[in-house]
Amino acid sequence: MFLLQKTKYSPVSLTSSEPPREIDDHESPGFLSEKIRCDCPNSKSQGIKLYLITGLNIVFIISYSLWGIWYYDTYWRLNGALRRASTYSPIHDLFDLEMKPQTLNGTLFTPKDPSIARQLPNPIADAIWDEWELTRYFSVTADQIRAMGKDPSIVSKLEDEDWGLGDDAYATVLDVYHQLHCLNSLRRIAYGEYYNTTGASASHGGGYHHSQKGEMYEVHINHCVDMLMQTIQCSGNMNLITMHWVAEQAYPFPDMGVNKQCINFYKLSEWRKENTLDLEKYVQKMQKKEDHVTELPAPDDYYKYYLPDVVNPNHLNWANPGNDFNL
Fold this sequence. Notes:
Order of helices and strands: EEHHEHEHHEHHHEEEHHH
Number of helices: 11
Strand content: 5-15%
Mean pLDDT: 84
């Protein structure tokens, strides 16, 4: 009889043409008992790569987001360029002011088509100046006032019963037209004989300061000069005036026709006229109701110039030392 022997078989190789062979008990069991070897990176290096990839993704997301914000503000957001050069104004959200480069007319001698600022006094030009000087009022909300850095609790409210604008409406005016008023005041002084305007009287067709005389007139004019100076200094004007050789001039002559970023001022003025509160109604309805308004103290100098015979209540019993309540 044949003796039966225990045999073991090695696995079939899919790539080898050699037939499987028997393995006895004394042979190595082959790859079944060997440790599996892996050329994969260890867990520490994998962790470092993961951190690097995550960090790069975060940097990319932040950079792309910042670029998106810049692109939106520059090319898509209404009045984006103007917003970046200005403090907050609700006007920025209302209509396109069409800011774009414009070359100013800086010629020394009067051009063929002069602006009203270069013209001698005349009724047509004066009508434009008078419109700019007219105080026109606009409604804003409490949140918009806070965004402007002001406290709505001390801003004159437009009562809903009078205006029908709801319980969140407050009175404002556009600052640029106050600056034009100041400029026009100086212009009228320059043509004082035509306007009957001198240092003793500021009469110009019914302005609110038409009766100012003497010291108070000087206070008003000095206020205007100071406002114009501060506005010019605050404008961030870094434009350069180029110098040129000109016939008959021994030294280089300035070309003051500089390039600036300008809004469409005509469009602003038209919007102002179309969206103002009713001025006659304003006069009727906005007279102070003593019983439910929050008042600021009148400046000390108001009592000095307008009410010299009235006791100034700001400093009764030595109150408020050092505070002149100037506004």
